[in-house]
Write a structure and sequence with these properties.
heterotrimer, A alpha/beta (253), B mainly alpha (224), C mainly alpha (223), A: 253 residues, alpha/beta, Rossmann fold, six-stranded mixed β-sheet, four-stranded antiparallel β-sheet, 10 helices, 10 strands, globular, B: 224 residues, mainly alpha, MetI-like fold
Chain lengths: 253, 224, 223
C-alpha cells in the first residue's frame, strides 16, 4: 500500500492553473524526484501534500486514510510528514539545538533531555554535532540547510518533503547537502524532492517525475527518463539544465 | 500672603514629584503592553467582529484628546462607584487604555514584520497557532517592537502632564503648586521643562540608536 | 450604581458645544497654517542654512519634542509676562500651538526635502536658479507631497492637543464643556458627548485633508 497517494489534485491561483489533475503514489522507502521548469507546479504540489496549500479538488491519502486539510488532522499529519524549505527558515532567535528540539518538545510532548539527546543524534547524521549551541546566523548556507534537515528529522517523520533545498546555496556548499540527502535515501527514508540536482536524481531516486504546465508529463526510473525521454518538452528541459550550468553538468555525471 | 522664593528646597519638591511621573508612565506602559498584545491578536482574528472591535478601540483612543479620555474615565469611575474617586486609579486606567491603542499598533506592525516563512516553518513542525505565537513569532516580534516602544515611552512621559489637570500630583502639578507658592512662573516652569527634557531626551536618542541597530539585525533574519 | 444618566441636558446645550467645536477648528486651522510656514522655514534653515542656524533649529526642535505641550503653554501664558510679554489666553494658546506644531512638522518637512531626488536640484542649478528659488520652485512642492500623510497625522494630533489650552481658559470645545459641567454637574455625560465631537472632528479633518491632497497635488496632473 502506498504511503502517500494523491488523486486528481487541481489548484488555481486566480487565472493561473498551477496544478491540473495530478495523481501520484509514493511507496514506503521510495525516493521520488520531481523536476521541471519554474512555474510547472512542482512546489505547489509539495505544499499541497503537507497542507500549506489547499487543493481545489482531488484527494490526499496518507497511510490509507483520506486527509482533510484542517485543524486537528493537519497537525497529526505534520508529525508524520516533514518539510525542508529552500530558504531553510530556521528560527533566528533560537540556537541550533533549540530549533531542533522545539517540535519534539512542544508538539510531541517529549521531555527536554530526551529531545536534546535526539538533537545530538540527528546533528550527527548531518555532520554538525559541534554546532549544537551556535545560532543560525553564525553558520554558512550549507550548514543552515543541514540544520533544517536535522530539524525535520527530529520529528521522526515517515516522509520528508524537500522544496528545492539547494537552489539558494552557493555552488561549493551544495555538495555537503547532497551527501546528506544520499545518506538519507540509502537509509530507507521516504523522500519527495523538488530538485534541479540531476546527478542526485540519477543516482539516488527510485522514480523521477517530470512536471510541465501543472501536469505530470513523464514518470519513471531515472535511467529511462534521462536516457530516453519520450516527449520533446522533457528532452529540451534536460538539455537546458545541462548546458546552462557546467557545475550541474559535472554533478549530473 | 507669604510667598517663598525659589531655592533648593523648592527644586527638591519638584524632583520628588518625578517618581510619580515615572511610576505612572511605567505602569501605563506595562498595562498597555498587555492590552496592546490582546488588541494586536484580535486584529488578526478570523472573526470580523473581533477585528472591528480592535480597530474601533484604536480609532477611539487615537482619535480623541487624552484629556477627554481622562475626564471620561475619571467621571465614569465616579459614576460607577458613586463616590469622589482618587485621581490615581482613574489616571492609571486612562493612560493604560491609551497606551494599549498605540502599543497595539506597534505590536501589530512587529508581528507583520515577521516573514511568512517563519509561520510556515513553525506550522510544519506541528505547532498549534498559540504555540507558533509563543515560541516563534512573539519572541521575534518583541525584539522588533523595542525601538518604537521606547519612542512611545517618550510620548507617554510627556502625556502624563495632562494628569495634572484633574489634580494628580506629578511633575507638572507640582510645578503649578510651586508657582502658586512662589509667584515665580518665570523660574518654575522652565525648570519643570528642563526636568522633562532630561527625562525624555536620552530616551529619544536611545530610540533612534535602537532603530538603527534593529534594522541591521532584521536584515539578517529577513534574509531567510 | 444608582446614577441616572441624563443625556437630555447635554442635548439642550448642544448648540454651545457645537460653537466650542467651531472655535477648536478655527484655532487649529490657524495654528496649522502658521505652524506649517514656520516648519518650512525651519526645514529650509536646517538643510540649507549656515551652521548657527542649523544648531538653533536643532535645539528648538529637540526642546519642543522632549517637553510636554502643557508646560509649553504655561510658559507662554504664565512665564512670559514676568519678562514683559503679556499675551491673552487665546493668543498664548495660538502661539504655543504654532510653536509646537512647527517643531514636529519641521522634522517631517526636512525628511521630505531630503527625499527629493538630487538630480532635480542639480537641474535647477544648471538653469541658473539661486538656492532660495530652487527651494521654492523645485523642492518644496514634491517634498510636501511625499510627506503629506505624516503631516496630516500631525495636524490631527494638533487639533486633539488643542483641548489642553482649556487650562489657561482659552476658548474652545473643552473649555466650553468644562463650564457647562460646572453649572449642570452632569460631568460624565458632557465629557462623553464632547469626546464624540472630537472623534467626529478627527474623522472630518481626515476627509478634508485628503480632499486638500487631491486638489493640490493630484488634480490635473498626469497619473
Amino acid at each position: 500500500m502506498p504511503l502517500l497517494a494523491l488523486a486528481g489534485i487541481s489548484k488555481r491561483f486566480g487565472a493561473h492553473r498551477a496544478l491540473d489533475g495530478v495523481s501520484l503514489a509514493v511507496e514506503p522507502g521510495e525516493v521520488v524526484a520531481i523536476i521541471g521548469r519554474s512555474g510547472s507546479g512542482k512546489s505547489t504540489l509539495l505544499r499541497v501534500i503537507n497542507g500549506l496549500e489547499r487543493p481545489d479538488s482531488g484527494t490526499i491519502e496518507f497511510d490509507g486514510k483520506i486527509i482533510e486539510p484542517t485543524g486537528h488532522q493537519l497537525k497529526a499529519l505534520r508529525r508524520e510528514i516533514g518539510i525542508v524549505f529552500q530558504s531553510y527558515n530556521l528560527f533566528p532567535h533560537l540556537s541550533v539545538e533549540r530549533n531542533i528540539t522545539l517540535g519534539p518538545t512542544v508538539a510531541k510532548g517529549m521531555t527536554l533531555p530526551a529531545a536534546q539527546e535526539l538533537a545530538r543524534r540527528v546533528l550527527a547524521m548531518v555532520d554538525l554535532e559541534d554546532k549544537r549551541l551556535t545560532y543560525p546566523q553564525q553558520l554558512s548556507g550549507g550548514q543552515q540547510q543541514r540544520v533544517a534537515i536535522a530539524r525535520a528529522l527530529a520529528m521522526e517523520p515517515r516522509l520528508i518533503l524537500f522544496d528545492e533545498i539547494t537552489a539558494a546555496l552557493d555552488p561549493e556548499l551544495i555538495g555537503e547537502v547532497v551527501r546528506v540527502l544520499e545518506r538519507l535515501a540509502q537509509g530507507g527514508m521516504t523522500m519527495v524532492l523538488v530538485t534541479h540536482e540531476m546527478g542526485f536524481a540519477r543516482r539516488s531516486a527510485d522514480t523521477v517525475v517530470f512536471m510541465h504546465e501543472g501536469r505530470i508529463w513523464e514518470k519513471g526510473p531515472p535511467a529511462k527518463l534521462f536516457g530516453a525521454p519520450r516527449t520533446p518538452e522533457l528532452a529540451s528541459f534536460i538539455d537546458a539544465i545541462l548546458s546552462v550550468d557546467p557545475a550541474a553538468k559535472r554533478r549530473a555525471g | 500672603m507669604m510667598t517663598r522664593s525659589f531655592g533648593t528646597p523648592e527644586f527638591l519638591y519638584l524632583l520628588k514629584a518625578v517618581p510619580w511621573t515615572l511610576l505612572l508612565s511605567l505602569g501605563a506602559l506595562l498595562g498597555g503592553g498587555i492590552v496592546g498584545l490582546v488588541i494586536a491578536i484580535l486584529r488578526t482574528s478570523p472573526l470580523p467582529v473581533l477585528r472591528w472591535l480592535a480597530t474601533g478601540y484604536i480609532e477611539l483612543f487615537q482619535g480623541t484628546p487624552v484629556l477627554m479620555q481622562l475626564f471620561v474615565t475619571y467621571y465614569g469611575l465616579a459614576v460607577v462607584f458613586n463616590i469622589q474617586v482618587d485621581p490615581w486609579p482613574a489616571v492609571l486606567l486612562a493612560f493604560t487604555l491609551y497606551s494599549g491603542a498605540f502599543l497595539g499598533e506597534i505590536w501589530r506592525g512587529s508581528i507583520e514584520a515577521i516573514p511568512r516563512p517563519q509561520w510556515e516553518a513553525a506550522e510544519c513542525l506541528a505547532l498549534s497557532f498559540p504555540q507558533q505565537l509563543r515560541y516563534v513569532i512573539l519572541p521575534q516580534a518583541a525584539r522588533i517592537s523595542i525601538p518604537p516602544t521606547v519612542g512611545f515611552a517618550v510620548l507617554l512621559i510627556k502625556s502624563t502632564s495632562i494628569a495634572a489637570i484633574i489634580g494628580f500630583v506629578e511633575l507638572t502639578r507640582a510645578g503649578q503648586l510651586m508657582t502658586d507658592a512662589t509667584f515665580q512662573p518665570m523660574i518654575v516652569y522652565p525648570v519643570v521643562a528642563a526636568i522633562y527634557f532630561l527625562l525624555c531626551w536620552p530616551l529619544s536618542l536611545l530610540a533612534q540608536t535602537l532603530e538603527r541597530r534593529i534594522d541591521a539585525t532584521l536584515g539578517v533574519s529577513r534574509h531567510f | 450604581m444608582n446614577y441616572v444618566f441624563q443625556f437630555n441636558i447635554v442635548w439642550e446645550h448642544f448648540p454651545e458645544l457645537l460653537e466650542g467645536a467651531r472655535l477648536t477648528i478655527q484655532l487649529s486651522a490657524t495654528a496649522m497654517a502658521l505652524g506649517l510656514i514656520l516648519a518650512i522655514a525651519c526645514a529650509y534653515g536646517k538643510s540649507a542654512g549656515p551652521r548657527p542656524v542649523r544648531v538653533l533649529v536643532a535645539a528648538y526642535v529637540e526642546l519642543i519634542r522632549n517637553t510636554p505641550f502643557l508646560v509649553q503653554i504655561f510658559i507662554f501664558y504664565f512665564s512670559l509676562p514676568m519678562i514683559g510679554i503679556r499675551l491673552s489666553a487665546d493668543t498664548a494658546a495660538l502661539a504655543a500651538m504654532t510653536v509646537n506644531l512647527g517643531a514636529y512638522a519641521a522634522e517631517i518637512v526636512r525628511a521630505g526635502i531630503e527625499a527629493v531626488p538630487h538630480g532635480q536640484v542639480e537641474a535647477g542649478r544648471a538653469l541658473g536658479l539661486k538656492r532660495l528659488q530652487i527651494f521654492r520652485f523645485i523642492v518644496i512642492f514634491p517634498a510636501l507631497k511625499t510627506v503629506y500623510p505624516a503631516l496630516a497625522s500631525q495636524f490631527i494630533l494638533l487639533m486633539l492637543n488643542s483641548s489642553v489650552v482649556s487650562t489657561i481658559s482659552a476658548v474652545e470645545l473643552t473649555a466650553v464643556t468644562n463650564s457647562l459641567t460646572s453649572t449642570t454637574f452632569r460631568s460624565f455625560e458632557f465629557y462623553f458627548v464632547a469626546t464624540g465631537l472630537y472623534l467626529a472632528m478627527s474623522l472630518g479633518f481626515r476627509v478634508v485633508l485628503s480632499g486638500i491632497y487631491w486638489t493640490v497635488f493630484e488634480r490635473g496632473r498626469p497619473a
